[in-house]
Amino acid sequence: MQSGFPDIWDTRGFARALDSAFGALVAAWGDTLEAMFLPILRMLILMEKGLQALPWWVVLVALTALALHASRSWRTAALVAVLILAIGLLGVWNDAMATIALMVVATLLSIVIGIPAGILMSRSDRLRALALPVLDIMQTMPIFVYLIPFVMLFGPGKIPALLATIVFAVPPVIRLTDLGIRQVDEEIVEASRAFGASPRQQLWSVQVPLALPSIMAGVNQTTMMALSMVVIASMIGAGGLGYQVLQGIQRLEVSRGLMAGLGIVLLAVVFDRIAQAYGRRMQANLHREG
Amino acid sequence: MAATLETGTKIRVEGVSKVFGKTPERAFALVQAGMGKAELLETTGHVLGLHDIDLTIGSGETFVIMGLSGSGKSTLIRHFNRLIEPTAGRILVDGEDILRLSEPALRSFRRRKIAMVFQRFALLPHRTVLENVMFGLLIDGVPRARAEARAREQIALVGLDGFEARHPAQLSGGMQQRVGLARALATDAEILLMDEAFSALDPLIRHDMQMQLKQIQSRLHKTIVFITHDLDEALLLGDHIAILRDGELRQVGTGAEILAAPADDYVARFVRDVNRARTIRCGDLAEPGIAAGAEIGADAALEQAFGALARGPVTVRGADGAPRGVLTAGRVLAALAG
Ligand SMILES: Nc1ncnc2c1ncn2[C@@H]1O[C@H](COP(=O)(O)OP(=O)(O)OP(=O)(O)O)[C@@H](O)[C@H]1O
Ligand SMILES: [Mg+2]
After folding, report:
1. Smallest Cα–Cα separation from A173: which of A222, A127, A213, A211?
2. ipTM above 0.95, yes or no
3. Which residue, by CA, sits nearest to atom 2 of ligand 1?
4. Which chain A positions have a beta carbon within 8 Å of B122's beta carbon?
């Protein structure tokens, strides 16, 4: 090597050991893991096929109603309706439905994992000190790096795509659940203790409700990150809009890449509007003024 | 509240000390060896919050704790429901050592026997007034319908009928603190802890709340531990007043006793600016005897006797109508001079 950095330890040997250990892990546990995640795969496929089977206008009405419910604003609802029409006009409807399915399932699983993890983290300073650097790594590590082990474990397909998406998308909801609970007014928590609330009662009647705006902000970010993963996830077989972008790159078809890319942008705006509206409603609930 | 219903001791505090920091026991050993608060902080980084406090609070009385900021008032009152655990000492409520209570027993003690009102109200912002007042009852597992009926009574008691469905942010500070008071009354606890409960309110509303508390107390006869910075408030509400400085108890007595004989310079500085004409009662200064002229109630403030005193000595009568003695202008002037 030109720089002459001394070979203090045997990196190549270490790398070989790591690879073979992982290989052994795959051989021993690959099938079991695959069986374990089968129900989730079924759920994902069901969701994808379901969305694609629905008439387009049902999806449009449902998402518009959701936006209206969240925002109580006809303008936001109208915007969402127009964006969804545009997705149809771009000719990427089926791929968009596959992407929504992946994103929704990844987000739901992230929430199911992330909120309890955030709650645990808020209860112990030591756990928090351990978890924060791990979350940092999860968010900064180039995503391709953990595609590799997931693909090795499951082979290319929807499950590794889903898992990689979750690993990438779950940190914000964990962080903001922890932060939200820690930021709850100490005097209110003390009041609940003074009235004899058990730790569980404190959590559910005071801490979680008061942390909800922060938790929702986390859910919002998680949704956006899941969506931003779809292009990369499609490289290992997730399908959807990302796959079309990938095809566009591989075949040098600018139009195909552009249409699918625009579709992703439109979806991002739709889900951002809906999630933000929900976040604002929660905030307003906490600080209701006359 | 002058007529105290002291049927016995409600709370006893015996040799309670509290050290804040990483290794409080070790730091406390230094305190026992004679180290002062300032030195302890400098050499070990530990804060001596309370030092060797002994107190007796009678059943049915209003006991006021006073002291400058940082003197340990909040720390002391939080020992009574064990929001803070002492480093040393015992706390007896109705003769029972509350430090021995197990977790579940402590919870039911907090749910039924002792309630608290907070300086910054500490209401749940996402719940309505009604739900806030029901809070303690629901925590205790009282069925919803019963809790709601009881909460409505308390809301009426503090004069907030019609506001049940509002949220705290929609109410003024005074109204929010009424919700805090109703929440504390709802569990029917015998002991009410009030940590600067009226300090965040503006003067007029504060006076209303003081009067309301006196009126509620004359009906319910709770044991109230009340913290304040304000001597006028202490004299108005307190059957007994304790004065804390740097975590140590400086003086305990009735308002009149403390005004008449401050234990040290610190207490004297505290009482210097009080409006004596308004806080000393005629009965406090009555001397044996009887006068020919006007009469006045023992509970009346001195200033109410000024007009009559200008014409001569005044006879003081107790609430029962029996003469308590005479009040002379000379005695009054001497008391006003301090
Ligand atoms: N959790 C804690 N950790 C360290 N020190 C504390 C803690 N709580 C209180 N103290 C210290 O103990 C002392 C007494 O505080 P406390 O809050 O009881 O005072 P206070 O009389 O209620 O003051 P204020 O009138 O400002 O409310 C102060 O020096 C304070 O800094
Ligand atoms: Mg205080």
Report:
1. A222
2. no
3. B20
4. 185, 187-188, 190-191
Percent of chain A beyond pLDDT 90? Answer: 47
Is the pTM for the entire model greater than 0.80? yes
Region B29-49: mean pLDDT is 91
In tens, the pLDDT along B142-198 reads: 999 999 999 999 999 888 999 999 999 999 988 999 999 999 999 999 999 999 999
d(CA A122, CA A235): 36
**Radius of gyration (C-alpha) of chain B in whole angstroms:** 22
Q: By the CB < 8 Å criterion, does A193 face chain B?
A: yes
Task: Determine the distance separating the centroid of ligand 2 and the alpha carbon of B74, expressed in angstroms.
Answer: 4
Report the pLDDT value the prediction gives residue A37, as an integer from 0 to 100. Answer: 87
Q: How far is CA A144 from the centre of its chain?
A: 16
Q: Which residues of A touch B166 (CB under 8 A)?
A: 290
Q: Per-residue pLDDT tens for B60-76?
A: 999 999 998 999 999 99
The count of residues in chain A is: 290
Q: What are the backbone dihedrals phi and psi of residue B322, each rounded to the nearest 5 degrees, phi first?
A: -75, 140
Give chain B's end-to-end CA distance (angstroms, integer). 24
Q: How many residues are given for chain B?
A: 338
Residue B279: both structure tokens together: 């806080």
- CB of A286 within 8 Å of any CB in chain B? yes
Confidence of residue A204 (pLDDT cuts 50, 70, 90): very high
B31 touches chain A (CB under 8 A): no
Among A109, A85, A119, A115, smallest CA distance to A226 is for A109
CA distance A242 to chain B (A): 41
Q: Is the pLDDT of residue B97 over 70?
A: yes
Cβ–Cβ pairs < 8 A, chains A and B = 72
Q: Looking at residues B234-258, what average pLDDT do you find?
A: 92
Domains of chain B: 1-113+224-273 (3.40.50.300), 278-336 (3.90.1280)
